[in-house]
Structure formats: structure tokens, C-alpha cells
Write a structure and sequence with these properties.
This protein has 332 residues and is mostly helical. It folds into two domains: 90 residues, no CATH class; 237 residues, MetI-like (MetI-like fold), CATH 1.10.3720. A two-stranded antiparallel sheet has the order 1-2. Helix 5 packs across helix 8, helix 10 runs parallel beside helix 11 and helix 11 packs antiparallel against helix 12. The chain is globular. The protein starts with a helix and ends in a 14-residue tail after the last helix.
Length: 332
Amino acid sequence: MGRTWTLIRRRLLQAIPVILIVSIGIFGLLELAGGDAVDAYLAVTGGGDPAFAERLRQQWGLDAGLWVRFLAYVESLVTLDFGWSVVMSKPVSVAILERLPNTALMMGAAIAFSACLGTLLGGIAALRKGTAADAGITVGALVLNAMPSFWIGLIAIVVFAVKLAWFPLGGIASFDRPDLAIGRVLDVAWHLVLPVTVLGLAYMALYVRLMRSAMIETAASDWVRAARARGLPRLRIVRRHMARPALLPVVTMLGLQAGNLLGGSVVVETVFAIPGLGSLAYDAVSQRDLPLIAGILLVGTLMVIVVNLLVDITYARLDPRVTDDRVRAGGA
């Protein structure tokens, strides 16, 4: 347990410069972008005279110099006050906290679904190498990976929501939500089945290929041959001597895929009308709401850091021989 806490402290210290670099990069990119929130607001509302635009810039603090804006930006990061969102007409932190649970729930379920199903199918394909099952799993995974997530989402809506009416068309909950807590939980889960499945299937092929190749390589190792020579049961050999070492590259890739899943949630949340960070980011970009964009990017960075920390802990638990300094290097 002490080794785990040492790992957590070390990773949190390493996350500090990452957050600083990302924060400065976000500010620089937003400054280089043309236009501002006032321009987007006037475009949506039908325009206005220059005096009105100037008053808005003064009110929103957009008329200050670069250095003043940067200091205000740093202060907002330290105090966790990201300013006012023009799109949502509320503080940025409030808007993000309202949407964050939906995205976190959908991302967590999609990561677990894609990793578990991909690992299981990859292990089956490795154990049946060269058979029809191996070919079918490999080809099927590659076909799903080649399909755009928005296209899979639209097909899922047409088939399972419109034709069969098994699932709702979109949203995160019903308008007439049940009164009981268990009913509300089941209602949310029912709404998330299609988006989680679509998001998970788009990334499942990678885990299938990684697990298959790792299992095949592990099956030819000396310790597996020794376990077979000792007469150990086949299930024990597969579970402890083949599957556990093969999971190391899968777990490493899991952390790398966390950022891609967050980006993919933009498309899936838009298709399924889920009020999450992805759809909020789309609205913020289209409306040039710079404070909201900066807040979403920083929260996304923190989510990726947390996922990678969990991956590091899992990696160390799977292979206790790996030292803290080599937790990530050992799986590369």
C-alpha cells in the first residue's frame, strides 16, 4: 500500500508542470485565434453598433492588454474562477460542473466496455489462432474501427431507437423521471446504452489486436512452457501465466486512449443530444466563448491525468516487479 501512495504522490507532482504548460498553451492559442466572444455574440443577435460592441468588451474584460489578460487568466486558474460564460449565461465553473458528471459517466462506461470486451475477444482470438473464430473477431473489430463513430451512432438510432423502439432517441434522462433513486439510475443507464456502445465499439478494435498479439507472444514464453510441463490446469495457465502479462500493453494503451475518448465524446454527445462536456465544447467553439473553451480544455486535461494515474496504479498491481520509476516505461 505504501508503494501505491508513493506512486500517487510522484504522479501528482509530475502533473503540476503538465497543467502549467497546457494552461499557457491554451491561453496562447486562444489569443492567436481571430475574433472574440463579442463578435460571436453580435453575429448571433443580429449585430450592433461599434459603441455597443466596445461596451461589451469593457464589461467582459476583453479590452485590456495582453499582459493584464494573462494575469487575470492565471488568477482565475488559481482561484478556480474561470469567468462568465456568454453561451450559458452563468459562471464557467457552474456550467462545467453541470455537464461534467454526464461526460465522466459516459466516458467511464465506454472505457470499461471497450477495454473489457476488446480484451476478452482478443484473448479468444489468440487461443483460437488460425481458426474461423480468430478471423471473424479480427475482421469484425477492424470493420468497426474503420467506421466513423457518428455513422455508427446514426445507424444505432435508426435501428434500435426508431425501428425497434428499444431505447430513447437521445438525452440523458426522461422528462417524467421516476421518483425513486433506483428508478432514476435505471433511467439514466437506459439512455446511455446506445451512446456508450457506439463510443466503445469505435475503440474496441485496438484492444482486440493488442490482446491477441500479446497473448500469442506470451504463449511462446519460457514460463508458459514450464507451467505446461508441470501439468498445471489449462485455465490456470491462461488466466495467470498468459492473460496477466498480456494485459500490460492493454492497460498502457488504455491511458493513451483516454484523450481520444474525450474528443470522440464531442461527436457522440452531439448525435445523441447528451448534455455533456463534448456538446458544451461544441457550443463554446461555435459561439467563440473563450473563457468556457479554456475551462473545458483544462478540465479535460485533468480528466486525462486522473485516468493515467489509475492506469499507472493498475499497471503496478499487475506487475509488482516494475519499479515506480519504470511503471510506464515497462509497458512501452
